[in-house]
């Protein structure tokens, strides 16, 4: 859900305070942190918080929107120098790395991306674009959907979010998935062929 009408100055200030507090609390305690703690840190009542953000997912999406916007822009720029399969791999790896910034966000990732903030739209649109590009290039099966990518990102996040150095494990999990959805090319799949070059 996105804001359509401009907010009064006091309402806008409250919204900004809530988002700043949410960023702090979610970074400290994870995505499952108490919303009462967010309201208290923002200096507003819990009713004010719920008027602006009726669900936890809407608050998470709003707090994360700028981060998602930056992620989507970086992915678009990075993909210009990558083949379609590598672009999807890079997107998934970076989506996981961005998601685990808030511990526990993974369990709500699919719902959060559907909220409709600019960052959520940009992240989803970028994933759809890269998947479509890889399918048209014949390197990813045509029956794979963007939702499938989100499920894999979620599973990977859950598998690695407690690791001290998750980057290599993320690459391993993403490779397992991509090897499973690649279009077969003789006895070896196209991802294996690409990796051997």
TrEMBL record:
UniProt keyword Transcription regulation present: yes
InterPro entries per record: Homeodomain-like_sf, HTH-type_TetR-like_transc_reg, HTH_TetR, Tet_transcr_reg_TetR-rel_C_sf, TetR_SbtR-like_C
Sorted UniProt keywords: DNA-binding, Transcription, Transcription regulation
Record-linked Gene3D superfamilies: Tetracycline Repressor, domain 2
Top-level taxon of the source organism: Bacteria
Pfam families with a match to the protein in the record: TetR_C_43, TetR_N
HTH tetR-type domain: residues covered: 12-71
Regions recorded as binding DNA: 34-53
Protein name listed in UniProt: TetR/AcrR family transcriptional regulator
Native source species: Paenibacillus terreus
Organism phylogeny: Bacteria, Bacillati, Bacillota, Bacilli, Bacillales
